[in-house]
Structure formats: structure tokens, C-alpha cells
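DM from R.C. (forwarded with permission)

"hey, sorry to bug you on a friday — could you get me a structure for this? deadline for the figure draft is monday and I only need the backbone to look sensible"
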Amino acid sequence: MMRPHEFAEVIGQPRFVGKVIELPENVAADAVARLGKQFVTQPGSGWWWENLRKDLPQFAYAPPDEDAYRLLPIVCPDREVLFFVSGDEAPPWAGFRAHPRILAAAIAQSSAFEYVVADPNGEWLLMENHHGVLAAIGDPVSTSLRQRAARELG
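My reply, with the result:
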């Protein structure tokens, strides 16, 4: 499982410098706390994807090629997002800001790890677990992921 310092090494590559911004620890911790209260029944858990609130729109999908990260620029709105390297540890987590397209490219250069992508305004979360399952909660990402899965599974 990848650790935050390993992801920091990946984003230190020249192609990512200035495109993935690490959040100060207190900012990342505050964002994780706020998002956890909003979307998760047990925000102190390391596996948010197991504890999503049932009263919000959600969808989970395991792409056949097991490269769920490639769906980030397709499923996420085309704007900067928050990104947290969650691993299987309880929060707080290392946080970053970047465009989904850039995050997908950085994740492709990384070893497997769990992560959470979030709307900066707290409208939705998207997370990949250690099973390669991409889970979305909130719209538009839950609807977008559902539509993409339907197209891929045809």
C-alpha cells in the first residue's frame, strides 16, 4: 500500500510540479473532518467506502481492467478537486489539490493505494479501495459513474 510520502515523490516529477499542490496538514485535516461528517457514518474509519451514508445518491463500480483511476477525468466535473491519500489508515490524511486529469496521470505512475477525491465545495466524494472498486457518493459523480459503468458493461 502506498504511503503519502511515496505519492509526494511521484508528484515531485517535473511533469507534475506546480500541477499537484500539497495542502497544509491543518487544511487537509479540516477538509477530511468536514467531508467525513457529511458523507460517512463512521468518519474515524480508514475505510470510508464501507461506511457511506445510505440517504445520499451513490454507486460503486469495479472496472474490468482494474484501472479505476482512469475514470477520474471522465466521472469528475472538469475542475480542480481535493485528493487524499487514505491508504487503510484512519484520518487525518495527506491532502492535495489538482485537476482530475493530472491526478489520474500521477496515480498511473504510482503503486496501488486507496484514495479519496472530493469536490472542494463538499458536494460529492469519489474513492477507490484496495479491491479496485470506485465508489461515488453525491451527484453528479454517482450518476456519472453509473452511466459510465452502463456504457462499459454495455
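R.C.: lifesaver. The longest strand covers residues 81-85.
me: no worries. The CA atoms of residues 39 and 53 lie 6 Å apart.
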